[in-house]
Amino acid sequence: KTITIQTDHSVYPVVLGEDAIEKLDDIVNQLTPVVTSILLIADETVYKLHKNYIASGLPERIKRSTFLTPAGEKAKSFEVYQNAIGFALEEGLDRHSLVIACGGGATGDLAGFVAATFMRGIRLIQLPTTILAHDSAVGGKVAINHPLGKNMVGSFHQPAAVIYDMNFLHSLPIRESRSGFAEVIKHAIIADPKWLDEMMADLDSLESLDNELLENSLKKGIEIKAAIVEKDEKELGIRAYLNFGHTYGHAIETWAGYGKWSHGESIMAGMVYSLYLSKKLKNLEFDLLRFVRWINKLGYTAQPPAESQFDELLQLMLKDKKTVGKEVRFVLLEKIGKPVIQKIDTKELAAADKMIRSAKG
Ligand code: NAD
Ligand code: ZN
Fold it and tell me: Could you tell me the pTM of the whole model?
């Protein structure tokens, strides 16, 4: 399956499926100007597990260097970034070289930032290996972290292609699947009520995700994200809808300390919170109790960490990128599939927080 993504300045394919990596060779061959050398930037855990498989897909005739990043979020540091750039220089990469990123969102973000900045920008192909990466590999946002804030140094750099090979996903730990699948559910909620209904009816565990269901879910999720990004590449308007659940969710993720609550677990609680606010402030018609029972079955919790205080979460929400002045802006829903952005005052936020914490499930 191929999805074509079109932004203001570029068009690129997302190739999705079992063995999608077989398409890599052709895609690299068709790039113009001709690729002079390849820098593979891979997550070390992924590389250990899939070394031979990755190698089998890479073009043989082109000179290649491999740079391994520490697994996961540690890849997104200044130090790793500097090492990667240093390595690229030593290896003699030039302006017509290609970066291939292989790993989850963290490796993709780091490698993307390397590609965006090395000699003012070289080409990038993403080989995502997590469910979450259906979100991060598409859209062109790349970044590393600063000690004072996540994703605080970054750029927009669209890939030349995304090759999403389902075979990588078989080794993904359940916790990572759960984290990534929250974004799939988010895409359904903000854009496709029918799909959400279907998922709620058909899916009752993430432990043994059926290949076909997973592939279809990723495809739909990518199409929804792509449609939004195509209309708003630089996040001036509707792209903010993709942040549904993220304001309260990010606050939880940061409060807990990275990794303690995964991104997906955090934003799932954030989505429940936003759904509750949407019912209250936007008359959203939605059976929230049924939704909560469903996500509980999938292993998510609907509530923030019990030891967290609303005030602590509020302070973190006030730092959210969507916040202007002292009013927190939220993505709410008038209907499933129909998001709106709205400022919400602190009292309302506190009341919702209290309500969610007192509910069961
Ligand atoms: P990740 O890249 O941090 O990887 C999570 C863990 O899974 C790591 O330990 C990694 O080694 C392991 N892993 C990855 N693939 C595996 C596989 N196939 N088999 C076994 N283990 C595997 O996690 P992620 O959830 O994919 O990405 C999170 C990152 O994505 C965050 O840094 C976030 O900021 C970023 N992100 C970026 C965007 C964007 O638009 N650029 C959007 C959303 C998230
Ligand atoms: Zn997210």
Answer: 0.95
